[in-house]
Amino acid sequence: MKVVFDNTDPPVKPLVIILNNPVHIGDDIRLQVNGNFVLRLYNEVGELVLTKACHRGMELWPNHGLPKGKYVVDANGERQRLLVL
Questions:
Q1: Domain-located, residue 32
Q2: Is 10 among the domain residues?
Q3: Res 14: pLDDT
Q4: In this predicted structure, what is the pLDDT of residue 13?
Q5: What total of structural domains would you count in the chain?
Q6: Which CATH number fits the domain that encloses residue 43?
Q7: Which superkingdom does the taxonomy of this entry point to (predicted)?
Q8: CA distance linking residue 41 with residue 50, whole number of Å
Q9: What is residue 7's predicted lDDT score, i.e. its pLDDT?
Q10: Range of 30's domain?
Q11: Are 84 and 72 spatial neighbours (Cβ–Cβ below 8 Å)?
Q12: pLDDT by position in tens, the chain (length 85)
């Protein structure tokens, strides 16, 4: 028997790409968004600190009130870490 692997499927894009990670206090968080959905930002103890409807393309989140620390960006269950310095 011959096994053939079909690699013709396009690679899966992440729903969100954080373009500037880590980010410094006062700098906007730049995101590349690959879809339309609600993004949620959680602090390191799991508290929801921001909810925002996002649309395909570039998004800027003002970063004026986030203290230094580790955060999780959740896009429909796809999670990424964000570091604020």
A1: yes
A2: no
A3: 84
A4: 77
A5: 1
A6: 2.60.40
A7: Bacteria
A8: 5
A9: 62
A10: 16-84
A11: no
A12: 566 555 666 667 788 889 999 999 889 999 999 989 899 999 999 999 989 898 899 988 888 788 999 999 999 899 999 999 9
Q: Which residues contact 80 (CB under 8 A, 6 or more apart)?
A: 14, 16, 18, 21, 72, 73
Q: Give me the torsion for CA of 64, 50, 83, 65, rounded to 10°.
A: 20
Phi-psi label, residue 15: left if phi above 0, alpha if psi -120 to 50, beta otherwise: alpha
> What single letter denotes the amino acid at residue 34?
N
Instruction: Say how far apart CA 9 and CA 23 lie, in whole Å.
Output: 34
Please check whether residue 52 lies inside any domain of the structure.
yes
Q: Which two tokens stand for residue 9?
A: 């499927």
Helix (H) or strand (E) holding 33: strand 29-33
